[in-house]
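stage 2 :: seqdesign
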């Protein structure tokens, strides 16, 4: 009986989604039929970009801590590497219906062949990061998106305003707080004639670009507003999803805020988050094992400044990250529990010799500070430091 009930629920959910998409497509077609065939011709374009570096490890953390780009590499390690390669195709079916397809290679951990960035023969792996269809104006001033798509956590606003994903991910992305892509259905829209208020609502698998492997879903929400002739933007995000039901229930919820002021030459911004991962760590209590919540938090400040119009820019950023603000030094944590606070910084110049070509000398710094009360020396404080020349180029974008 339970199996039959679950089956009926699955069929009902699938039928409901199918009916919604059918109504959306009919409404979009009805709106497009208002325009004559001579006014619009379906078309598409290929586009892409890539960024990579020559990087040299100037100093290495003696304890080999961290799980970001250059963690655990020895001092003096150096390499040429592409950190991202994108190849996309956008197609416009009609004035209100479009599609997006994106293949991506992304290098997450330098010199680590035991990760999904490379194939078994150590060649670069490529995966589908986006494959979606978009229906505009079914809801006034809104777009309905179905398929693999960018999540509203940071990809749709804060990352673009920071403007230097080619240098480093935003803090929430860098620290693995949420995925930049997910498979699901979303509504993205604006409110009011001047469109100074915007919103995003998405339900996804909560499995990134990977195939689904459970029944859990994640809710993404975003609300943002522009002020001062759209120079100032303030955004709030809330996300919630289930991670497990057994052997104990685990849920993850995230609150994130972002604010930035952007003029013609200067951009300053701040981004902060706090996450609650229920029952996500274990520790010993005598001979028994207990579960504890994990509460990561972080804040990021950035500045970009145009020095010479269309030719030279300056950028700088500073982050503070705490993997668990609920850390208790008396607990004997099990597994890969992270007991180190981290401070990240980057600074550099952006030379633009040609349109869509960027050459950026920069420094990349990640400091570790142990929260253990008996930590001393390099265990207490140490850091990774990279010197880099970053190349970033785009085509048809």
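stage 2 :: out
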């Amino acid at each position: 009986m339970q199996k039959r009930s679950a089956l009926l629920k699955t069929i009902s959910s699938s039928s409901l989604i199918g009916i919604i998409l059918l109504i959306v497509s009919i409404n979009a077609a009805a709106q497009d039929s208002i325009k004559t065939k001579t006014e619009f011709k379906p078309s598409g374009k290929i586009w892409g970009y890539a960024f990579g570096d020559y990087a040299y490890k100037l100093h290495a953390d003696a304890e080999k801590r961290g799980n970001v780009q250059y963690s655990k590499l020895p001092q003096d390690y150096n390499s040429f590497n592409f950190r991202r390669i994108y190849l996309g195709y956008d197609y416009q079916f009609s004035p209100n219906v479009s599609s997006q397809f994106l293949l991506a290679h992304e290098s997450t951990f330098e010199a680590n062949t035991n990760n999904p960035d490379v194939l078994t023969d150590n060649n670069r792996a490529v995966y589908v990061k986006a494959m979606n269809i978009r229906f505009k104006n079914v809801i006034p001033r809104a777009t309905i998106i179905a398929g693999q798509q960018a999540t509203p956590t940071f990809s749709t606003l804060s990352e673009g305003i920071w403007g230097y994903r080619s240098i480093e991910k935003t803090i929430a992305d860098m620290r693995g707080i949420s995925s930049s892509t997910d498979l699901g259905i979303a509504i993205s829209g604006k409110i009011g004639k001047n469109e100074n208020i915007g919103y995003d609502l998405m339900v996804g698998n909560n499995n990134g670009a990977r195939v689904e492997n459970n029944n859990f879903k994640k809710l993404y929400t975003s609300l943002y507003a522009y002020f001062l002739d759209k120079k100032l933007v303030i955004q709030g995000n809330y996300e919630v999803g289930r991670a497990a039901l057994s052997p104990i229930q685990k849920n993850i919820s995230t609150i994130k805020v972002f604010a930035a002021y952007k003029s013609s030459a200067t951009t300053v911004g701040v981004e902060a988050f706090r996450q609650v991962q229920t029952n996500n760590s274990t520790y010993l209590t005598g001979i028994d094992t207990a579960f504890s919540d994990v509460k990561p938090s972080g804040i990021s400040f950035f500045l970009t400044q145009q020095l010479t119009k269309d030719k030279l820019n300056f950028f700088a950023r500073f982050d503070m990250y705490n993997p668990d603000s609920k850390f208790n030094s008396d607990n004997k944590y099990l597994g890969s529990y992270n007991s180190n606070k981290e401070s990240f910084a980057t600074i550099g110049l952006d030379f633009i010799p040609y349109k869509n070509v960027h050459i950026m000398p920069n420094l990349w710094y990640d400091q570790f500070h142990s929260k253990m009360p008996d930590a001393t020396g390099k265990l207490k404080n140490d850091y990774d430091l990279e010197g880099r020349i970053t190349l970033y180029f785009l085509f048809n974008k």
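stage 3 :: structure notes
- The first helix runs from residue 2 to 32.
- Helices lie at 2-32, 158-162, 171-174, 377-380.
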